[in-house]
Structures are given as structure tokens and as C-alpha cells.
Design brief:
ten-stranded antiparallel beta sheet, 30% strand, 42 strands, alpha+beta, 20% helix, 13 helices, eight-stranded parallel β-barrel, 758 residues
């Protein structure tokens, strides 16, 4: 079972630089490999073989070491960027004819973990362009191979790069039962869910398409902040009847992973940056003379078993290699978090972080999206928050930050990168440079709420924010930044590193945002970044390299969040999926109790019914990372403490280090649903847990639960949280083949704790 490996954070560019500056390893003198010969790289569980071939690079073999069954043929060509233009006005595309130049063997070490790789260098016929395609492997870890591509303009003049696909694999010998599996991002609310205002978001976020020769599947992603409007999680699984599979993933906030069926049971997986902006079409960007454009990382991995098996291997690798160090290296992460219902007294009910949300900078109230002005201001003006500070004897944010730290809490503050001009078009007193009057070129034309979004394609804007944000977080003793409302702009009319209204706006704004976040990690002790962004509009693998946690959706509803967690956890590590649930919405004693207004069993008394719904809500919240939002705390304080402690002591180790299995169907509010964590090699007493939900009394009272991920040769004690009369001991092989019957009468939920039998 994969365990968390304590390593330093390595961003895409830092890792690449380390490899390029690392020591070159000489080939075996007794068996030298020709520069254009085939070479192999290994992860712990798989092998890839690559061979440059004239004007291209071929991936000749990709398979798990246990099966040795390659998904690719020796004619699988890796896509290289295809075109450029002399300038913006000249629409003529010049095709780039690449020639293989040389191969460089690379090795480096990341905190004791070896990284090996090859860089294949190509040049064009004119000698003006060069291309480095690097394939990287971590031999000690199960998981994918990482590809990073650098395009350099060596000409004396600027050019416009129009790359088309920049990465691809051609799969062969697929069966007609092979499925292509993708997951929608669900940036606002779960598909198939009925919102509390009656809006129905139809559909199912999980898409499974059987192979066919004309199949075309796009897992496209962007940063657009509107509900459910930003596409898919950028990853495609190709699964062969749950026997084995292959996946392709893109580590960026915008772009596409495509799966296209061909003749003779073939399928091409390719990656590009096209078709994800307002100007639906091809991606293009300026590459100045003497500069290098870095394409986002692409991952190709293979696995034996089901999509869950492939997903678990990828997520464990990603956790070990890519997530922020503060998450990976601290066993108390991810933190339990709560809004400011009881302030710093949250520590008394085992909550670890408190959050200041939207509006602490103003006395205006956001009602029905009539958002406040001064959104980009970082000055405290809200009377309620000022009253909180005074109540604690604090006179400033810094005083409060020190107090929070002394209590052993973490402080999360909501902060927007929006224009700071007020309703009278005057800049605010504090951070006055960050406004559209002083610097109109720093802001685009995007109005998500009231303030215009910053254009992080502007390098001067990025440099200002690095300094200003560092001063704000460090000076006020605030550990966590919670972003929202498109910190990575979707579009901009400005000409910066990107073109005006260009297809490259999201790319360069992503680069600027990453530079800001990385600066804060380096310069603010204990810094944490938390991504809200309209409830998951930045739910992607790039954000997962920067954020400790990502908001799962924006519904605040336990059923919707349970559903988006179920879906998103096929790609994003569950420790990074935050479930911010409004506790009143599953408390029948409150007027805020809304859909699903589950009807109680007529035989249930009111107190039992309240407990039933509260348990279901809190168990939903601790599936990934809990955030206790709003609630009638006189009633629910005991529940928060109970579930916060349960999460910290039993669930969090499994969320971090266990494997997640989608053992029951996707939640729909009508039928049984649930998931399971398993970690049979854990040094903890608890080796796994099954979460079971029966949200409708008309569903059957008995369900056969078939488990996964356990040691087949061991006997396991199964202990029910509620229905202890069903406690039993069963062998792992039986649980994973025949399963066991579980009974829940009426509406309800339960948790089954799994430990080794004595």
C-alpha cells in the first residue's frame, strides 16, 4: 500500500530545472545505445520505451511489469508542435519539420527519491527552432511517466507558435468492450442534483463510452467561473473490462485530453491547448526571440485492474510527488475547518482552522448575488468582524492573528484579486496601487461580481501582488489564503504576455498565478493556499499542485457534495477535496432544511429523525476534508466535536494514505450509495472504513456490499458505528468476492470500521 513519502514540493519548472542541471549519467560502456536507439524507463510498476525516429519520437512500448502487455505498437508517434506564424497579422502557417538532434540522459534526486529521464532534442530544418521533449520516471514509486516539452525560438525575430497537439499515444489491439472513462468537473453543483431553488442540473458527470472506430471524447478544462461551465477533469481512462487500463492526464488549468477511435481497434490519446477559450479554436501564443515556451506536464500511466485501481495508483503518486509540501509533510493535514460561528472557541470542539469568508472588508451584504463593492480591498471594515476583534481585546488583524496562533488554530482568510476602487471610483486607502485607476493595464474586462478581475498575464501586476500579499499574510499572521471568483482570468482584452482576447490568456494567467502562490509558499512561514473559485471552477491537476484543498462544489448541500466527491475523487486525491456543507441544511429542526427534504419513517420519533439526518450530513462531510459551514450550534456543537475527533483520529489517516473504492453506485438521493477506504498495510489499528448511505426509505432494506483493497488472506473484524448487532468477522477474500449483506431500515447511514481480527 502506498504511504505518504515526505518530500519537498517540486513544481513543474523547478523539477525540470533540477533535471537539466543534474549530473548526466554515462551509458554503459560495454553496451552503448546509439543516440537514435530505443531506450527504456521504469517506474516501480511499469515500463516505457522510447525511440527517436528522424522527424519524430516514437513510444514503442508501455505496459505494467506484471503483465508485460503493451498498450502501444512500435508505430505510436508522439506528437510534436506543428506550426508557427511569422507574426499576428500574417495568417499563413508554416509547418515545422523537425529533425532529431541528440539524446541526453538525466538523473537527479528529490529528497532521497531518484528521478531518471531522457531528453530528446529536435531542431527544425532552418535551425531557428529547437524542441526538448523530456520523459521522467520515479523508479521507486508506482505511477505514471511525466512528459515535459520545451519549445525555444532561436531566431532573431519573434514568432507565433500554433502547436496543435503537443503530446500523443496511439493504442492498439483494444477490444470492443474497452471503455473510455471521463469525469465532468461539476464546478458548481452535482449533475443530477436538484438545487434548493428548484433548479435541476440534469445528467451524470461520469461518462463511459465503449470503443468504436469513430469515437471522439474530449476531456476539456478551463477556468470559467459560472456554475458547471468549465468542462471536465483533464484526464481520460481507457479501461479493458476491468482487467487493465491506461490513462492520460494534463497538469494545467486549461487544455484538452482527447480520445479518438480509429481502424483496427485502435485509439489515439492526444493533448492540446485548443478549444477552451471564448474564441473556440486553436491555441496560439507569442514566443519572443531567444525565449522558451514550456508546455504543461502530461502523464501517461498503465495499471492492472479496474478504473479504481488505476485511479488509486495515480493519486498516490500525485500525492507523493506533486501536492504542496505543507499537505504531504504534515500528518495533521488536511485541517478540519469552520466558519466564524463561535470564533476561536472552535478549538474546544476539535476544529483546527477558522475561516473569514466573503465580505469582511465591507458592511454591505451579498444577497441574491447583489455583491458588495470594495471586493479587492484587504482592509477590515465589517462591523461584525470588528466586534469579534474587540470582544477578544484585539485592535488589529495582527493582534487577532497572534491570538489565533496562541490558541493553536490556523486562520483562513477569503481574499479576491479584484479591482479595489469603491462605488465612487476612488482607490482604497490600503493597497491603493491595486486598482484600475492607477493601473488600468493590470485588470481585464471580466466582471464576475463587482470588481474587475486582475490580469495575471501582466508581469508588473504579478510582481506587485507578490510583495503586497506577502506583506498582508506575514504581517497579519494569516496562514491560509482562500481564493475565489477567477483568480486565473478566463479572458482579457489586454496585450500582455498573452494576446488581446487571445486563446493564450488562461495559459499566461495561470503562469502568473502559480508564480504568486509559489512566492508565498517560499516567503510566508506555514503558508497554505485553499481554492474555492466559485465552488470548484479551478478543480484540476494544476490547482492540485498549488492548493492544499479544493472546494468540491458550491451547493453547500450534503447530497450534492457527496456526489461531486464521488465523481471528482476518480482524479483528485480525496485529501484535497473539501466538502463545505451548511449544517442547517441537513438539520430537520431548522427552517434552512432543504432538498432533499427526506420524509421520515412514520414510526420514527422526532429526536431519532434529527439524529438520522445529522449523522448522514456529518458523515458526508468527512468523506474528504470537512468544512463546517453555518449551523445551529446550540444543537450541533456536540456533533461537530464528535465528527471532528472521529475524522482526526480515524478517518484522516485513511483519506491521506488509504485507497478509495467506489463500491456502491453514484449518489442519486433515491438508492443506496457509498464508498470505501482500505489501507491493509497501515500501522494504525483501523485498516479501512465503509461509508454507507440510504437516503430514501423506499430503497431496499438490505444491500450486498462487496469490498475491495483488502488482504485476501486475512480475517477482518467489521464494527458498525450504529448497528452493532451486525458486527462480524469475515475473511478478506470473501469480502472482496461474495461481500456481505448490510441492513438499514428506513432512511439512514452507517460506517463500518475494518480492523484485523485477533
Amino acid at each position: 500500500m502506498k504511504k505518504s513519502i515526505k518530500r519537498l514540493l517540486c513544481s513543474m519548472l523547478l523539477l525540470t530545472a533540477a533535471l537539466f542541471n543534474g549530473c548526466s549519467k554515462d551509458a554503459d560502456e560495454d553496451a552503448p545505445i546509439p543516440m537514435d536507439g530505443e531506450v527504456s524507463l521504469f517506474s516501480k510498476d511499469s515500463e516505457i520505451r522510447l525511440k527517436p525516429s528522424g522527424d519524430t519520437l516514437r513510444i514503442t512500448y508501455l505496459a505494467t511489469t506484471s503483465s508485460a502487455k503493451s498498450f502501444v505498437s512500435d508505430s505510436s508517434f508522439y506528437a510534436l508542435p506543428k506550426y508557427y506564424r511569422d507574426d499576428e497579422q500574417n495568417e499563413k502557417l508554416t509547418e515545422i519539420i523537425w529533425q532529431f538532434h541528440d539524446r541526453i540522459e538525466r538523473s537527479s534526486e528529490e529528497n532521497g527519491v531518484p528521478v531518471t529521464g531522457y531528453t530528446f532534442r529536435f531542431t527544425d530544418l532552418s535551425g531557428k527552432l529547437s524542441l526538448d521533449v523530456s520523459c521522467l520516471a520515479r523508479e521507486s514509486l508506482n505511477g505514471p511517466f511525466e512528459f515535459i516539452t520545451h519549445f525555444t525560438n532561436n531566431a532573431s525575430e519573434d514568432m507565433i507558435l500554433v502547436p496543435s497537439s503537443f503530446s500523443s499515444l496511439s493504442l492498439t489491439s483494444l477490444s470492443e468492450e474497452t471503455t473510455v472513462f471521463t469525469v465532468k468537473k461539476e464546478s458548481g453543483i452535482a449533475q443530477g442534483h436538484v438545487h434548493h431553488d428548484g433548479t435541476v442540473f440534469v445528467g451524470n458527470a461520469i461518462k463511459e463510452n465503449k470503443w468504436r472506430k469513430n469515437l471522439s471524447v474530449e476531456a476539456w478544462v478551463n477556468t470559467f467561473q459560472n456554475f458547471n461551465a468549465s468542462g471536465y477533469l483533464p484526464m481520460v481512462y481507457v479501461n479493458n473490462q476491468s482487467e487493465n487500463g491506461i490513462y492520460a492526464a494534463l497538469e494545467w488549468s486549461s487544455g484538452r485530453v482527447l480520445a479518438e477511435g480509429g481502424e483496427n481497434n485502435s485509439l489515439t490519446l492526444s493533448v492540446d491547448m485548443d478549444g477552451v477559450s471564448e474564441n473556440k479554436g486553436y491555441f496560439k501564443t507569442k514566443v519572443p526571440s531567444g525565449e522558451t515556451f514550456v508546455f504543461p506536464s502530461v502523464y501517461y500511466g498503465v495499471y492492472d485492474g479496474s478504473v479504481d485501481d488505476g485511479s488509486n495508483r495515480f493519486k498516490a503518486w500525485f500525492f507523493d510527488c506533486k501536492v504542496p509540501a505543507v499537505l504531504r509533510d504534515h500528518a495533521n493535514e488536511p485541517l478540519t475547518q469552520m466558519d466564524m460561528q463561535i470564533g476561536i472557541e472552535a478549538v474546544d470542539i476539535s476544529v483546527e482552522a477558522i475561516k473569514w469568508d466573503y465580505g469582511w472588508w465591507t458592511n454591505e451584504t451579498a444577497v441574491n448575488h447583489a455583491w458588495s463593492t470594495l471586493e479587492g480591498s484587504w482592509m477590515l471594515r465589517n462591523d461584525a468582524y470588528i466586534g469579534v476583534l474587540k470582544g477578544y481585546g484585539c485592535t488589529s488583524l495582527t493582534d487577532f492573528g497572534r491570538l489565533v496562533g496562541r490558541k493553536g488554530l490556523s486562520w483562513t482568510t477569503y481574499l479576491l484579486l479584484h479591482d479595489t476602487v469603491d462605488a465612487n471610483l476612488n482607490p482604497t486607502d490600503q493597497f491603493g496601487e491595486f486598482n484600475s485607476l492607477t493601473h488600468p493595464e493590470w485588470f481585464g474586462n471580466r466582471h464576475i461580481t463587482t470588481g474587475r478581475s486582475a490580469d495575471l498575464g501582466n508581469e508588473a501586476c504579478v510582481e506587485y501582488l507578490k510583495t503586497a500579499l506577502t506583506e498582508f499574510f506575514k504581517g497579519n499572521k494569516i496562514s491560509t489564503w482562500r481564493s475565489d471568483f477567477e483568480p486565473i482570468s478566463y479572458t482579457s482584452p489586454n496585450e500582455n504576455r498573452h494576446s488581446a482576447n487571445g486563446s493564450d490568456v488562461m495559459y499566461w494567467c495561470t503562469v502568473g498565478f502559480r508564480d504568486i502562490i509559489q512566492h508565498l509558499y517560499r516567503n510566508v512561514e506555514g503558508f497554505r493556499y485553499e481554492s474555492c473559485s466559485s465552488g470548484g471552477s479551478m478543480k484540476d491537476l494544476f490547482t492540485a499542485t498549488q492548493a492544499v484543498v479544493i472546494n468540491c462544489d458550491d451547493s453547500a448541500n450534503y447530497l450534492s457534495l457527496r456526489t461531486t466527491f464521488y465523481d471528482s475523487s476518480y482524479v483528485i486525491h480525496p485529501a484535497q477535496l473539501q466538502l463545505p456543507v451548511n449544517m442547517d441544511t441537513f438539520n430537520p429542526d431548522t427552517p434552512q432544511y432543504f432538498y432533499p427534504k427526506v420524509e421520515p419513517d412514520p414510526t420514527a420519533n422526532a429526536e431519532n429523525w434529527k439524529d438520522t439526518m445529522l449523522d448522514m450530513g456529518y458523515r458526508t462531510m468527512i468523506l474528504g476534508t470537512p468544512m463546517f459551514s453555518s449551523g445551529s450550534l446550540t444543537i450541533e456543537r456536540e456533533y461537530i466535536k464528535q465528527y471532528a475527533e472521529m475524522y482526526r483520529e480515524k478517518v484522516r489517516p485513511l483519506v491521506r494514505d488509504g485507497e478509495l473504492y467506489h463500491i456502491l453506485p453514484r449518489p442519486d438521493g433515491k438508492n443506496w450509495d457509498g464508498v470505501m477506504y482500505a489501507d491493509p498495510d497501515s500501522d494504525q489499528e483501523i485498516k479501512g472504513v465503509v461509508f454507507l448511505f440510504k437516503p430514501n426509505k423506499d430503497a431496499g432494506n438490505v444491500y450486498r456490499v462487496v469490498m475491495d483493497g483488502l488482504d485476501p488472506d486475512k480475517q477482518y473484524s467489521l464494527t458498525f458505528e450504529d448497528r452493532i448487532e451486525q458486527n462480524t468477522v469475515v475473511k478478506g477474500s470473501v469480502l472482496m468476492s461474495d461481500g456481505m449483506d448490510v441492513q438499514i431500515l428506513g432512511v439512514g447511514s452507517d460506517m463500518i470500521w475494518i480492523s484485523e481480527a485477533e
